[in-house]
Specification:
Structural class: mainly alpha
Number of strands: 2
Helix content: over 70%
Strand order of the largest sheet: 1-2
Strand content: under 5%
Shape: globular
């Protein structure tokens, strides 16, 4: 009987793997096509590979400062430089008009003004979105069906009005950092359940990626890491696990020490706080419900359904005794959503720009909602 079950189960497993590979490939192809749509609807590929610069939002500034920063890195090893243009000139620092992504694109593109290198780097950065969501889902132990649903929801959130507007304006660094934090949470859960070299490398890499995209997400990331350590650390009695975790987190910071030193040194050269464009004159449920933050009735309905579906997913994780995962995802969703709503209702918090945390909150909720979508129909069918 055992031999029969293994021989009959092998074709089924092979078929499932092939089906999962085809589904994942189709999902990434769809996301890649949407990414090419950023550079034109009719002929996106020639627009991606030519030398025409991106002129929307802050992209021209990123391209100009990124070119200067790449040249400074090649000469001095530091991205700081003095920009002689624009009236009396100004110092280019990581905290004031920093363009780290553009600097990397231009540096890898061969030092010099090359809009093609910037556009290709921007497209490759967009391709990280489904990869980071899938890594977070697999790290938390979700099956392939839930991972597929979570990645699909993550792509829909990325191409929603808020993230699309931030991407076209050249201000999507916070959303990218939030995705890196989400993948970091998945890596932490993986390191708790199956510690090893690759799990440790995932913790280090995702933390370093979040630091690179936007170090201002540090308070959120540290809160999640602290909650994770308080819940998971007590189960690991050997000191090597704790040392490995500390080494991964500290090593992620050590990679960015050169520009973080400049960031601290020039802290006084900072931009003014952003104006609270979405603050509401009356803080009531109706005004928050109709706030421009939601970008429309369809987007608001999608967010409400996603957050509602996240509640059963949280209960499913607790029923499966995956309490650290449930705590991290629940805290991330509730905390980011609370900051989003408080930011449009309370002026001191809204000036920091917390309205941009809507998409990160939905990404955390997407992992919980994927469990509801794939598990609840099976449970109802069995009953």
């Amino acid at each position: 009987m055992a031999l029969e079950s293994t021989t009959t189960g092998a074709p089924k497993n092979w078929a499932r793997c092939c089906l999962a590979a085809v589904a994942v490939a189709g999902l990434f192809a769809w996301h890649g096509w949407l990414t090419l749509g950023l550079f034109g609807d009719s002929y996106p590929w020639p627009n991606l590979t030519n030398e025409e610069p991106v002129l929307s939002g802050r992209h021209p500034q990123h391209q100009y400062l990124g070119c200067i920063g790449a040249e400074a890195i090649a000469k001095t090893g530091r991205p700081c430089a003095y920009v002689p243009d624009f009236q009396a000139g100004f110092p280019k620092t990581p905290i004031f008009n920093g363009s780290r992504l553009a600097e990397v694109f231009y540096y890898l593109g061969g030092i010099g003004h090359s809009p093609r290198a910037y556009k290709i780097g921007l497209a490759l950065t967009c391709l990280l979105v489904p990869l980071l969501v899938a890594l977070a889902a697999r790290g938390m132990g979700l099956d392939w069906a839930s991972t597929f649903v979570a990645t699909t929801l993550g792509i829909l959130i990325w191409w929603g009005p808020q993230c699309r507007a931030a991407l076209e304006a050249g201000e999507a660094d916070l959303q990218l950092a939030a995705l890196a934090v989400l993948a970091h949470v998945g890596a932490l859960v993986r390191f708790d359940r199956r510690p090893g070299f690759w799990a440790w490398w995932g913790v280090w890499f995702t933390s370093a990626l979040a630091w690179f995209f936007q170090p201002l997400v540090l308070p959120i990331s540290l809160t999640l890491v602290l909650v994770y350590y308080l819940g998971a650390g007590v189960r690991h009695a050997h000191w090597t696990w704790h040392l490995a975790l500390i080494t991964a987190e500290a090593g992620a910071v050590a990679v960015h020490v050169p520009w973080l030193i400049d960031w601290v040194e020039y802290w006084w050269l900072r931009l003014p706080l952003p104006s609270p464009n979405d603050l509401l004159p009356h803080r009531t449920f109706q005004t928050i419900w109709n706030a421009p933050l939601w970008c429309g009735a369809a987007e608001r309905l999608f967010a409400v359904l996603l957050l509602g579906a996240a509640v059963p997913g949280l209960l499913i994780l607790y029923a499966r005794r995956c309490r650290p995962t449930a705590r991290l995802l629940g805290l991330g969703t509730a905390g980011l959503m609370s900051l989003t709503l408080l930011g449009i209702a309370w002026e001191p918090l809204g000036q920091v720009g917390t309205a941009a945390f809507l998409a990160p909150a939905l990404w955390f909720a997407a992992l919980l909602a994927s469990l509801s979508v794939t598990t609840l129909p099976v449970l109802l069918w069995r009953r």
